[in-house]
Design brief:
This protein is mostly helical and 311 residues long. Helices cover 63% and strands 3% of the residues. It has 17 helices and 4 strands. A two-stranded antiparallel ribbon has the order 1-4. A two-stranded antiparallel ribbon has the order 2-3.
Length: 311
Amino acid sequence: HDLARLATVPTLRWVSKPTIALALRVVFLQCAAHRQHIDTLVGSNLVLPLVDVLVWALQHWDRNDVLRWAMPVLALCLGPASTSKFDAIREDIGRYIANVGILFRVADRFALVAVTQQDDLFRLTCHFLCALTTQHRPKRVVVRSMQDLRVPVAKIFKTTGLFGMVTLLLASVPIHEFDHVTTNKNDNVTLHNDDTHASQPKPVLSSSSSSVMALSGLILRALTNMARLDVMWFQSVVGTRANQPRFVHLVRTVLLSARHELLVELLPLVGYYVLRNPPHQASLRCIDDGQPSLLQLLAMLPFSYFSDPRY
């Protein structure tokens, strides 16, 4: 009951912004420590008002303190459900989030102000997008009522700003930071040279750039989740004249970085990009200015990336 009362504090019109942020922080700490508290919020229909708080915060530039806690709270509520009942409610929450236009608002916000000026907020946004677009083994629905004939969540996402989010994410990977690399034999992935069959250390990001790698991995994971929603749609978005060069450059940069934590996020994304798509497959074979093609770089990865179920 205390948690339920606390969760209603951010929805009260007379409450100040610092109080709203503090209430959301306490809710987050409680839910992060105890899974049953998340079920309480979801089962008591207290999540949708928190979505409205997030919309309210996105509409104004002076409410970043509220955003910093509203997004993590909602990301927790969008996590794996403990029962099938909560899984259905989670899907309804996703529908509501899409229908109120949050994706449009997020894309507009970061389009107006450089991501580098809101690095912490953008990182939280990526966590939120990963949670929102993650599919937790959806089951085939047997139509028994009109409720079962509702528009699929994936279709709602596609019509409520997901296109803009893909473009934003592709443009926000900090690949310019990948130029500041040092050689570290302990952290890099060893690539195989077809000519000598010897292993050679590849340049990798220094340990001081761990935040860059973490953000890049989050973006790649969010893009992969979006691709899973609808592969053909994702391919059409990434294959546009504006997005495809960015995507190809991103893939090349990550492959050359030889960072394990990025490669495990990148490879599924590349798979969705080329799946049953001859033009995209051809882009992997293109050789630019004598540089190895993307296909050649992929072939140089250790075999475990293609055989181990963990990858």
